[in-house]
Design goal:
Elements (H helix, E strand, L loop, with lengths): L2 E2 L5 H6 L9 H9 L7 H11 L4 E4 L6 H15 L11 E4 L3 H14 L7 E4 L6 H8 L4 E4 L1 H9 L10 E4 L2 H6 L3 H9 L6 E6 L4 H10 L4 E4 L11 E6 L5 H8 L8 E4 L3 H13 L4 E4 L5 H12 L5 E4 L1 H4 L9 E4 L6 H8 L10 E6 L4 H11 L4 E2 L16 H6 L25 H4 L1
Parallel strand pairs: 1-8, 2-7, 2-8, 3-5, 3-6, 4-5, 6-7, 9-14, 9-15, 10-12, 10-13, 11-12, 13-14
The structure holds adenosine monophosphate (AMP).
């Protein structure tokens, strides 16, 4: 049975700080050094439960502070037992779907655990395994891993999971989307039965609940802002534009110097390369990241972007998963995903932990129905920017077997001029964020 953690009393919530969550001094100090003053809602809920030794079923996406929600109590629980002063054994395993997420999670452990004396490492595929094996041999307490490389190094005898006390499965829904179910089952089979498990997923469809039942023992459920409402703090705008004019529109939009950096999403790897190329041709410093790029190239592009030496990072959805850039204010959907949840994940790269965020989406005639799905999911009408140099002309694309089914049932609502649309809330010559 699942216990629902109750944290509904907002006045009580405001009084909760890291100290009142009984966090030990070395971690409190590190959290302070990170500049965190108040725990986020998921941290308020999850930390006390994990510290009590209970299993957690967490419904939260990246951007909510969920990494610290599991990393802080894991560090605290492992710090209690000083056995790490002897030969270290891997006592906590965090499995996450992508390399970028894995790296970020390990960075979080490093940040929050810097005064605990615990040791960590991260392993992922796409790079040579020797440095990872050397790190493992030196003895670590906490391992962050992507599934493939973990199983690989287990099969070679470099990793044993028999001493795992705390297991985290992160982004479980993405794991299933990315086809990791068999890998997860193999990893589960190698874990000790006696352990504490934490399970995080942005969405909780039935197959995720089913999977969680095979992992968790009498868990408490913690949940923050369902996927559809996390977008509330992000300003969202739509540009209706013909497909062939999207590059020109992007260059035009990026003339705005208020946009210091922007993460641009394309549907395909090829598309990401093409957009980056066009931006470079227009003297806009841009790099593309996607699955075909070597890990080192992706990491370098990400570091350049974080350091703002690259202004625009163009990414596909999988490559962008887990990109966590503080102060990223602009996300641009160059192409709109046909999966509404993907839109929410994309724009969730901005507006992190309560910061400002703006999402601009370029919608061509074919993508109007995707937009409708997004507005349905988020229960929010996205403001239209109609006064731009490349208004949509191709209102009625040629009907094909596929496009027919996607056509908008109420085209007037999407009238780019906005004149007849009661939904239109924006329409001057300035861009939306200038007008706020
Ligand atoms: P996550 O959901 O774990 O990806 O975290 C999203 C972002 O929130 C990261 O940049 C964290 O550094 C930041 N963060 C996590 N916890 C807090 C907090 N309590 N206060 C402020 N920022 C936080």
């Amino acid at each position: 049975m699942i216990n629902i953690a109750e944290f509904n009393n907002s006045s009580q919530e405001t009084e909760i700080n890291f100290k009142s969550l009984n966090i030990i001094e070395p971690i409190l100090k590190a959290v302070e050094e990170e500049g965190y003053t108040t725990p986020t809602p998921i941290q308020k809920q999850a930390i006390p439960i994990v510290l009590k030794g209970k299993d957690v079923l967490g419904c939260a996406q990246t951007g909510t502070g969920k990494t610290a929600a599991f990393a802080i109590p894991i560090l605290q629980l492992l710090s209690k037992d000083k056995s790490f002063t002897k030969k270290r054994k891997i006592r906590s395993l965090i499995v996450t779907p992508t390399r970028e997420l894995a790296i970020q999670i390990e960075e979080s452990f490093k940040a929050y655990g810097r005064h605990t004396g615990l040791k960590y490492t991260v392993i992922f595929g796409g790079v040579g395994q020797h440095p990872q094996i050397t790190a493992l041999r030196s003895g670590i307490d906490i391992l962050v891993a992507t599934p493939g490389r973990l199983l690989d190094l287990m099969s070679q005898g470099h990793i044993s999971l028999r001493d795992i006390e705390l297991f985290v499965l992160d982004e479980a829904d993405r794991m299933l989307d990315m086809g990791f179910i068999h890998d997860i089952k193999k990893i589960l089979a190698a874990l000790p039965k006696q352990r504490q498990s934490l399970f995080f997923s942005a969405t909780m469809p039935p197959e995720i609940i089913k999977l969680s039942n095979t992992i968790l023992n009498n868990p408490s459920m913690v949940s923050v802002t369902p996927v559809s409402s996390t977008v509330d703090i992000i300003k969202q705008y739509i540009y209706f534009v013909d497909k062939g004019n999207k590059n020109a529109l992007l260059v035009n939009v990026l003339k705005d110097t208020n946009i210091k950096t922007a993460l641009v999403f394309t549907r395909t790897k090829h598309g990401a390369d093409k957009v980056a190329k066009v931006l470079l041709q227009n003297n806009i410093k841009a790099e593309a990241i996607h699955g075909n790029k070597a890990q080192s190239v992706r990491q370098r592009a990400l570091s350049n972007f974080k350091a703002q030496t690259t202004r625009v990072l163009v990414a596909t959805d999988i490559a962008a998963r887990g990109i966590d850039v503080d102060d990223l204010e602009y996300v641009i959907n160059f192409e709109i995903s046909n999966i509404a949840e993907t839109y929410v994940h994309r724009i969730g790269r901005t507006g992190r932990a309560g910061a400002k965020g703006t999402a601009l989406s370029f919608c061509d005639a074919e993508e109007k129905s995707y937009l409708r799905d997004i507005e349905k999911l988020t229960s929010k009408k996205i403001d239209i920017i109609d006064n731009h140099p490349f208004p949509l002309k191709d209102h009625n694309p040629v009907k094909t077997a596929t496009s027919q089914g996607r056509r908008c049932s109420n085209p007037s609502r999407f009238n780019p001029s906005g004149k007849s649309s009661p939904k239109k809330r924006f329409g001057n010559s300035k861009t939306a964020w200038q007008a706020k």
